[in-house]
Amino acid sequence: MLNEFIKFSDWSITTLIALSPLVGMLLALVFPKPAENSRTIAWGVFAWSLVPLGLTLFLWLSGGFNPALASVTGDQAMIQQVDRVRWVPFFNADYFVGLDGMNFPLVFLTTALTPVCILAAFRIKQRQNVYLALMLLLESAMLGYFVSLNFLLLFLFWEFSLVPMFFIINNWGGENRRYSAFKFFVYTMAGSVGMLIIFEFIYLATGTFDLVVLSRLAQGLPVDPALLAPKLGAGYSNGATLQSMLFSAVQDVGLTSVLGNSNGTPAAIIFWCIFVAFAVKLAVWPLHTWQPDTYENAPTSGSMIVSAVMSKMGAYGMIRLMIMLFPKQTNHFAPILAIFALASILFGAYAGLAQTNLKRLIAYASINHMGYVLLGLAAAASAAPESLGNLDVAIRTSALNGVQAQMVAHGFSTAALFFLAGELYERTGTYQLDQFGGLRKVMPIFAGIMGVAMFANLGLPGLAGFVGEFFIFRGAWGTQPVITTIAVLGLIVTALVLIRMYQKIFYGPVNHKLTNLPDIKVGDWAFNVTLPLIIVLLVFGIYPKPLMDLSNYAATVMAQVFTSL
């Protein structure tokens, strides 16, 4: 019976994972409002949020998703749990979703963290059912984005994710919530417009929005001409590449007088448009300015989900649309990407030293950590010295595996930190670090839990954060040794930032106003929110193999693409 379900799920389970939260959203909105202070709807939404997680774990543990076959190349046979239905014939666009080694870890991250964020949202009293419905809508949009293999579909989910997050910040956020929500929306939308325009040009050049087909074209692999729009794809011939087809389109529309006669110029321009769009979401310096305001003013569960999952949409977009569609350009511009990564690492760390607000400090630490993600991507794509020899593929694979592990570990650790920051605010009425002090004596269990989350965030060995940083640095030393050496300074300063934060809260003299604060107790609500986060950080820190196996095969294939350039 299990095998029959797996067989059935080959065409349906990816869609079930992505769209099942919408059912819970509708139920939250249509159910009669319960009595005041009742958590009936909240518990119902929480229970429903476990459905996507259950389906994801079922695929992972039952073998329905096989990491050994999970490639990100332009070979659909390597993509698993595929749904493909004709969607918009006019644009030759399909509803095309599936799982591979680069999106499955992020699907797990999203489905695992959403129930925790919903549980954290139980403190929301005003229109709680609407808030929880927006959380499920956001989950569905993020999952749809991660599993989409057609640009139009991916872009639809990308844009749709902005809507619930905007209202979550605008309606339930802090003092400057409206300004922060507006800034968040405008920054992301501005980057999206450029990305949409350049993909319309890609469609004119190739006749497809299919990311699998485009990936094959990028690598010079043959594609079935039937997959291209009849008129737009008429110029395709075996041996044509995405870069050459883009240049032909430039010639056809008479833009060579503006762009010149270089075959690679159109692809380079498109590469940078894609980078800017996703660098905004990843909060890469200097496109990061929306992020501290957003993280500070979002409600606690909103800060958790936007920092833990939504920021990863930027990194994933770089992998799927930038690296896999423009590997030559990524290779060529990798040193510049590494410089942006270094700037984010150092800026996030040093700016964190200046923060007096706990949530803003965690926000700048997140900029620093996403800098390591970008460094891993740049390292994987960089030209490698000949001295590496046969280690070339292994070094690049290490960097890409580190990127995936870092995104997952950061997701769980930063979610824990933002939740605990929110709990401190509920107990003390402030986020100002100078208002705390000595709370280790008042709340020893709270201090212990926050200590685990803090050390995981800074990458202490034995906790999940160490794994990603180790593999990223292992890969980056091989291809970007100078920048990696400087980036180590950022790692040291980040440790100083987080340890200083911890000392200000839990050590020193006790603020006389805070001597009677309630501690977290085993089995209470706050303990139940943090427990799964801490367990994941410990398990993947001690035994990261299951997590690394998810992406290893796909990372190896991607590494081979860059090695062959």
Automatic annotation (TrEMBL):
Residues 149-489 form the NADH:quinone oxidoreductase/Mrp antiporter transmembrane domain. One of its GO terms (biological process) is electron transport coupled proton transport. It is a multi-pass membrane protein. The chain crosses the membrane at residues 12-31, 43-61, 104-122, 129-147, 153-172, 184-205, 265-284, 305-326, 332-354, 361-383, 403-421, 442-462, 482-502, 522-543. Its main location: membrane. GO terms for molecular function: NADH dehydrogenase (ubiquinone) activity; NADH dehydrogenase activity; ubiquinone binding. Keywords: Membrane, Transmembrane, Transmembrane helix. It is found in: Endomembrane system; Membrane. InterPro entries: NADH_Q_OxRdtase_chainM/4, NADH_UbQ_OxRdtase, ND/Mrp_TM. One of its GO terms (cellular component) is endomembrane system. The keyword Membrane applies. It comes from the Bacteria. PANTHER family: NADH-UBIQUINONE OXIDOREDUCTASE CHAIN 4. Belongs to the complex I subunit 4 family. This is NADH-quinone oxidoreductase subunit N. It comes from Herpetosiphon geysericola.
